[in-house]
Amino acid sequence: MHFQALFAILPFVATLPFQASGAPVALINSRSAMKREVPQEKSHDKFLRATQDMLQLDNPQGIVDPVFGLLGNAAASAGQGSVTNTDCLQQATADQAFTNAKAAGDVGGMTAALVYRALERNTGGVGVASVLCTETPVNPEIAALSQHQDPASPDAATTNKAITLALAQQIASIGEDPLIALESGTFAPGDVGDATGKGNSCDDPDCIFEGGRLVEDATADEIDQAVAGITPATGATGTAAADAAEDPAGSAVTDSGTGGCPAVFTGGDISVGAGTDADTGATGDEAADTAAPPANNAVAAEGIDIGQCTDFSLTFAGGLDNRAADEFTFQPTDLVNFNHGSALNPSIITQFMCDTFVNACARSATTRDVCKTVAADLDAQLQAGQLARDQGFADAWLTSLESAFGIQSTNTGTGDGNAAGVADDTDDTDAGANGNVDADADAGNADDAGTAADHSTDVNAGDDAAADADAGADADTTLNAGATGTAEGENLQTFASALNGVAATPVLNVGGDRPFQVKGDTFVNAGAAFQRSCDQQFNGCANAANSGQGDASVSDCSAQKDQCSAATPAA
């Protein structure tokens, strides 16, 4: 596809520095010098950018940029460096980038290289298949893949589906979310009589995602079946985002390092339960107002030691790691002690966090094992449909881990999902400091019906939300059937804005050691509770925007979230 690609790239090619040797060219960030966009090649730009970052860590063949590997041979040869077989330029680029990412311990970079290898390569017209590379790369993960073919070419649907499933298997083998493989898909088939060669493609960076033009080659169930039984390798860490991080130059880490360990999926038989009471072992003694949170703020279970990793909560939000605002992923809230990029699959994050308890934190094998038991149970609930990949999973992770550890998470981490004012969880004045907030404020009686569009707020996925949709519902309505039943208490949330009909979730003062309740979850710290309320409002607002059920855009919802967070009452 795209016979005109040669002409589009010529102005760029003319400016490139070339060297007779195979050494890397001086132009490390060549993409910034491109004066015009090359048709289709930038449709999956996030993977090209991440692959370029990995490639330039060590580029002995002097490959100029991954974009050349997606062009026809005439244009591609201008950027192939010392690669001798232009038909194999895409493979050679992916192979070197994967090698570098693996050496750096960067799962995100490895994933980007794998996806890049599977992207469609341009040909001379619509319906023309590209030539396959017959050389053997260094990495078997790359060797297992080939590029997508023009969707209008013969048997393209079958071919591209097989490529996507093979890609999913390789991504799973390195411990990343295999569903990312679906993003390697191409466009809808074009007209083979199209003289322009453009087909249904687009030119702007990542336009295939942002313009909704991506045609997925397989279903999520087919991906799950393809990767069943695959055990991730243990040679890299998850320091980059799941979909090709913007900062993928992570450092290599071993089991004795401080940056954690790869995600290794394990099984388990114990049932912790998503709605387990997180108060087990809590002393409620948090009166000391110190500058730093204590390692333990409750009576820990026998053998449990979390060291400095006191915030083991998960953030579920849109826009993490520079993703689109409406792309919701998981990430550790504390990115200092649990340094991992975001992932679509929460199991990637939870297993990484479990390993971090033994690789860093207090280096406690018992803590890791208990954590993995919890993670395995939640994975089983995911597979059984009792949980979904949404806020409910993040809530279940926190409450289950708190119960198993006998320790309350401080919820004071440094991730993207933190409230600005939640720096000190040891101040017990939060429980009473907000007592003078007007419980009858409009926000307390705001219509919570909009949260029906928010699939991310159920603590127990599969249970119907029991939030009362009546605009006049009192704060003591049943907030989450199947979680904690009916809760009564004064509503402290006074934020009144409700774009797309979604109000901020009530924050109830129910008393006790964990006095602040948001739906089925309880918190020691008021700031964490208010942030959860604002996050849930954003999720519901954004979901409504994406489904065409509201007038406000996702960016409007994001701005409202900032306003909601800023309106959190001072302790």
Which keywords apply here?
571 residues; 5% strand; 3 domains; 15 helices; signal; globular
Descriptive notes:
This protein has 3 domains: 5-227, no CATH class; 253-418, no CATH class; 430-566, no CATH class. The chain has 15 helices and 8 strands. The chain has helices at 5-13, 45-55, 73-76, 89-103, 107-118, 140-143, 156-173, 207-210, 220-227, 346-359, 365-384, 391-405, 430-433, 526-546, 554-566; strands spanning 314-318, 328-332, 478-480, 485-486, 490-491, 507-509, 516-518, 521-523. The strands form 3 sheets. A 4-stranded antiparallel β-sheet has the order 5-6-7-8. A two-stranded antiparallel ribbon has the order 1-2. A hairpin with a 6-residue loop joins strand 6 and strand 7 (516-518). Helix 2 (45-55) crosses helix 5 (107-118), helix 5 (107-118) runs antiparallel to helix 7 and helix 10 packs antiparallel against helix 11 (365-384). The longest helix has 21 residues, at 526-546. It is globular, with a radius of gyration of 25 Å. The N and C termini lie far apart (61 Å). Residues 1-39, 234-298 and 413-487 have low confidence and may be disordered.
Order of strands, main sheet, comes to 5-6-7-8
**How many helix segments?**
15
Low-confidence sequence ranges:
1-39, 234-298, 413-487
How many distinct folded domains?
Answer: 3
Range of strand content:
under 5%
Secondary structural class: mainly alpha
- Give the SSE order as H and E letters: HHHHHHHHHEEHHHHEEEEEEHH
